[in-house]
Amino acid sequence: MSHSEPNNKLFIETVGCQMNVLDSELVVAALRQDGYELTGNMKEADTILFNTCSVREHAEQKIYSQLGRLKYSKETRPNLVIGVMGCMAQKDQKLIFQRAPQVDMIVGTGQLAEIPELINESRKKRSRQMAISLSRRGGSRTEVADSFQSYDPLRDPTMRPSPHQAFVRIMIGCDKFCTYCVVPTTRGPEQSRSPSALARETQALAEQGVKEITLLGQTVNSYKHVEDGKEYRMADLLELLHKTEGIQRIKFVTNYPKDMTNDLLYAIRDLPKVAHYLHVPLQHGCDDVLKKMKRGYTVPEYRDMMHRIREIIPSCAVSSDFIVGFCGETEEAHQKTMEAVREFRFKNSFIFKYSERAGTKAADNYPDDIEDKVKKRRNNEMLDLQNAISAEDNADFIGRSVEVLVEGPSKSAVKAEQNRPTNASTNQLVGRSRCDRIVVFDGNPRLAGSIANVQIHDCTPTTLMGDIITRTIQHGSSDLLPILQG
Ligand code: 5AD
Ligand code: SF4
Questions:
Q1: Confidence of residue 380 (pLDDT cuts 50, 70, 90)
Q2: pLDDT one-digit tens code per residue, 232-262
Q3: By alpha-carbon position, which residue is closest to atom 2 of ligand 1?
Q4: pLDDT confidence of 123, banded at 50, 70, 90?
Q5: How confident is the model at residue 3 (pLDDT cuts 50, 70, 90)?
Q6: Which atom belonging to ligand 1 lies closest to the Cα atom of 17?
Q7: Lowest model confidence (mean pLDDT) among 70-84, 110-124, 319-333, 459-473
Q8: N or C: which end of the chain has fewer CB within 10 A?
Q9: What is the pLDDT of residue 473?
Q10: Which residues form the TRAM domain (predicted)?
């Protein structure tokens, strides 16, 4: 398709997790090969795709309201193709056509490779297209797993968080079946990709100038793949990818508490490119609730894991997710979560109000009985507590220097620049420390993609502020200022 041909303007909206951000990158890359151009303006698009999330109801409502606004769009744009892809497509399937008849195409998480073809079919025949994977009870494990294809063929640098950062999917799906969670249904059975394919992909990204990779999976530390007679676990995979020249930092999310082996912790400690940062969601601080959530561990077991992390990698930052207002959560249970937040001093916590999801064990067995205003109050209490802890722990960095992988101009700086003339050579830059803390400092935008040492002089709960250390201070010694690990 050439530049001037019609029907090639693509608008894509992505909601949800990093997995979705990566899926959108891959779909855009494939469509660009077919001659599509991206547009940021939904009104001038010929193809509109929504990459959707089902983890909480709010994310779905957002998409249905967007679709509602397109209800009459076909009257003036008869060629328009509207597609819903991702988790909501896999979960709601045909129901989406019923709720939003203007939708032309529904594509599940395991069928993304078919999108270019399905758009063509839909436009050519003006007919509805749907491609989804088998449901978890729709066949043998192998049949279901095969119906969820991992889709990682082409990459598109313009769709990345920044030119130097890229996601690499190491596994798809989840087999944990936490009772509140829809992901095992929407993303299918857990399947790890082969180490050799991952090494090739990482190499290709490094050749494109990527400095930091974030390995993605629902439970990355459960990674397991046998290749050439050798079993690779997460520690082995890190060791393999660590060899990639040009890659300076490796992160991975999300971890599952029960699968945090000492081998993995030693690998993090011993491989200098690996971030000292672990996202390991605790979800709740009360054993009865954890049991009801079917998380598979108790608070004391999580505490043991935390002690091992702190002992083996003292500078490691740990972050968590929490759900407040889960079915039957008492005030006492909530206070136990507050206590856990106090005890474990997470770098940050993502806190969510429980949202009942049809088809999950929790929806089938326990009433969603905590009032929304109680959920909100508990959510705010947790946020306030976590913010206070983050502020205290960030203040410990003042006066120390940290190693920052520079991402580029900070977003708030970019916004401010739009309202005033630019000073070309220095800018407010943003990057992350090895322990994943956000660091803001002034510097030349050309530093993007390199490692800088930054002396911290101020902080907020979410950000460290500092000055770049450009030269060695030489008073008889040529040592750099002490660099804080992390
Ligand atoms: N309601 C609220 N939060 C949820 N999460 C997963 N399922 C639900 C739900 N039904 C949260 C968990 C998970 C994060 C990605 O989303 O905390 O770790
Ligand atoms: Fe959902 Fe639990 Fe799997 Fe995480 S581990 S994706 S919360 S089922």
A1: very high
A2: 999 999 999 999 999 999 999 999 999 999 9
A3: 354
A4: very high
A5: very low
A6: 15
A7: 459-473
A8: N
A9: 45
A10: 395-470
Between the CA of 171 and the centroid of ligand 1 the distance, in Å, is: 19
Of the listed ligands, the closest to the CA of 60 is 1
CA of residue 273 to ligand 2 center, whole Å: 27
Tell me: pLDDT of 162 over 60: yes
Query: Annotated binding residues for [4Fe-4S] cluster, as ranges?
Result: 17, 53, 87, 174, 178, 181
Domains of the chain: 9-144 (3.40.50.12160), 160-275 (3.30.750.210), 284-395 (3.30.750.200), 401-484 (2.40.50)
Residue nearest atom 5 of ligand 2, based on CA coordinates? 176
Annotated binding site: 17, 53, 87, 174, 178, 181
Whose atoms come closest to the Cα of 172: which ligand?
2
- Work out which ligand 2 atom sits closest to the CA atom of 256: 5
The number of CA neighbours under 13 Å toward the Cβ of 354 is 29
- Which atom number of ligand 1 is nearest to the Cα of residue 181? 7
Site to substitute for ligand 2 among 174, 258, 297, most atoms within 8 A of C-beta: 174
Share of the chain above pLDDT 70, in %: 92
Q: pLDDT at position 470, please?
A: 74
